[in-house]
Write a structure and sequence with these properties.
CATH superfamily of the largest domain: Bacterial muramidase
Pfam family, one: SLT_2
Helix content: 40-55%
Organism: Pseudomonas saudiphocaensis
GO biological process, one term: peptidoglycan catabolic process
Largest sheet: 5 strands, antiparallel
Order of helices and strands: HHHHHHHHEHHEHHEEHEEEHH
Strand order of the largest sheet: 4-6-7-3-5
Radius of gyration: 23 Å
Strand content: 5-15%
Keywords: Signal
Number of helices: 15
CATH topology of the largest domain: Helicase, Ruva Protein, domain 3
Shape: globular
CATH class of the largest domain: Mainly Alpha
Distance between the termini: 44 Å
Structural class: alpha+beta
CATH architecture of the largest domain: Orthogonal Bundle
Protein name: Membrane-bound lytic murein transglycosylase B
Length: about 325
Amino acid sequence: MKSSVKGRLAALCGAGSLSLLLAGMPLASAADYEGEKIAEFVREMTQDYGFASEQLEELLAQAERKQGILDAISRPAERVKPWKEYRPIFLTDARVAQGVDFWRENEAALARAESEFGVPAEIIVSIIGVETFYGRNTGGHRVIDALATLGFDYPPRQPFFRQQLKEFLLLTREEQVDPLTLTGSYAGAMGLPQFMPGSFRAYAVDFDDDGHIDIWKNPVDAIGSAASYFKQHGWRAGEPVVARATVKGERYADGLTQGLEPVLNAAELRELGWHSEDAIADDTAVTAFRLEGAEGDEYWIGLPNFYVITRYNRSVMYAMAVHQLAEMLVEAKGAQ
């Protein structure tokens, strides 16, 4: 490990060889994050987690304010695409073909994850495929830049991103990695599964038992971590994700779920005119939604595992894309 890296890691330890800290590390002549702007944050990290204040200040002085990140997160929301336009973005021949390749290359790890966590291999592959195209698009922003920019210069969500910056500094200390080298999305999501730092610390696992958790370059750890996330959010092994439905009567629209949280059970939904050929226990908590498909409206009943996928990304269409890509991966892999 280079001396400058050792110095940065020492900045996160709070005691011991701090006198050797950051020797020779170049600092910007006019740092974006220094002085009063970060004083409260540094004080919290020092008092709550034992960080060394002077050295942490020097580390944060190397974080850069990125106007492009502020522009990206502040950009007005695009028109919400209907399902018939959203689906083709993710369900492509290339994503299926390369997903099958990823599955075959990591078959042992995926099988072990399914055995230990109960999450099907195709769901794990699909999540990684939708999030980062199997690791090809993990983001090129330094995580420390993204989280400092949003934590100190984006008031609408400052508490959230400042907390994520804390989590990031803690995870780099725990994993003994250089905080200036890790990259991710403009919002600070990291690695193949695009975990935020808080999710990393809560759910990521060292699935290959090498003593480190690496979701950036190690697909085995990424696979185990995604499966861990799903398991801890309530994935039910062996159960389906959705059921296709038909609707009739004048009250079916009352069954459409507003938001993502299930508020009805299957029996109550049936009373409103929703029917499926799939057997669903009366007391199953469900969501119900209508998608504008290429051939007209589609009606779907979301089961508990569908709700789990929406905990990963709070979008009905995202969850449907993950589910349908998973189905396509199974079919394509079986056909080879």
